[in-house]
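Journal club side-thread
Mid-discussion, someone asked how the predicted structure for our own chain would compare to the paper's figures. Pasting it here so we can look after the session.
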Amino acid sequence: DLLDLDLAGLERFFAERGEKPFRARQVSHWLHQRLVDDVEAMTDIAKPLRLKLAAETVIAAPAVIRDTTASDGTRKWLYDVGNGNAVEAVYIPEDDRGTLCLSSQAGCAVGCRFCSTGHQGFSRNLGTAEIVGQLWFAERRLRQRLQLPEGERAISNVVMMGMGEPLQNYAALVPALRVMLDDHAYGLSRR
């Protein structure tokens, strides 16, 4: 899944195939700025390479089980992450920003008394593609709904406070954060 790779991962992917490093930036731009779901749409990449990418890769955000919008514009997506597990992402619109709360685990192992997720128990850590896929899908869906011009983002902030304790999934979280902060991807503020 191309959503599983940060810029360094994309560079390694292309280097292993004898491609130049700039291909990683091109693909990152198409994935995370233009939000394409098909490598055929990557029109500044040569047709033979697109065919190779189509044969070897996918672009797959988690499937949406439910999509609900509250009267204040807050939007919640319930994603299917397999084996009977589901996670949530919540978009909170404000006048000066759009915040997306993301999940990093299916369930939670900490078990805090005040948290309903902790009472569900822990199923598993999400992969990088599953974390990035929540943002990719939400940004894509919101841009369509809000009819934003190209280059304008609906989501300006990401908070890792959906399901799970993010630092307990450090190995998948760090590459996901790199994608979110990378100027060739989402370019979110480090603050």
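Post-session note: Residues 1 and 58 are 5 Å apart (CA to CA).
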